[in-house]
Design brief:
CATH class: Mainly Alpha
Shape: globular
CATH architecture: Orthogonal Bundle
Radius of gyration: 15 Å
Strand order of the largest sheet: 1-5-4
Number of domains: 1
InterPro entries: WH-like_DNA-bd_sf (IPR036388), WH_DNA-bd_sf (IPR036390)
Helix content: 40-55%
Strand content: 5-15%
Structural class: alpha+beta
CATH superfamily: Winged helix-like DNA-binding domain superfamily/Winged helix DNA-binding domain
Length: 153
């Protein structure tokens, strides 16, 4: 399995396998995992309408869903708009367990440890506070943003 699939799977596995609520939040968690840890940068991010965005991560999540490793459930947010909640499927859980049990995959333990730290720190933050943090700390990824209220003055 390629390194690019390991971080999204790791993020969904750690922290009691709690789901990640929303595509924007998932993008920010992977971005922060790459920026604030020593993890290999598997995804390239660019400025987009909601801050840092990786088209490759978006495509990877779709591929993981096609392979029945993750589930993407459509939910409604408070304003009635659709959003996605991501979680591991039973097949995804088995794949991660196999990766943990195999000792030949270098660095997977580090990915899980860093994913755990990032998910525990940021997954429960209200999305507006998470965006405000990302926008203030990484302003170079906000020039295409449509969310002016989060842009640094």
């Amino acid at each position: 399995m390629s390194h690019s699939k390991l971080l999204p799977l790791g993020l969904l596995y750690v922290d009691g396998q709690r789901e990640v609520d929303g595509a924007t939040r998932f993008q920010k968690l992977v971005f922060l995992a790459q920026e604030e840890t020593d993890l290999y940068n598997a995804f390239e991010f660019r400025s987009d309408k909601y801050g840092p965005f990786s088209p490759e991560l978006h495509a990877t999540l779709d591929k993981l869903q096609e392979r029945d490793l993750i589930a993407k459930e459509v939910k409604k947010n408070r304003s009635g708009n659709e959003k996605y909640a991501y979680r591991l499927t039973p097949t995804g859980q088995q794949v991660v367990q196999k990766l943990i049990n195999r000792n030949d995959l270098s660095g997977f333990d580090d990915i899980l440890e860093d994913a755990q730290n990032v998910k525990k720190r940021y997954n429960n933050k209200p999305l507006d506070r998470l965006l405000r943090y990302v926008y203030s700390k990484y302003p170079e990824y906000t020039d295409e943003s449509e969310l002016d209220e989060f842009k640094p003055a």
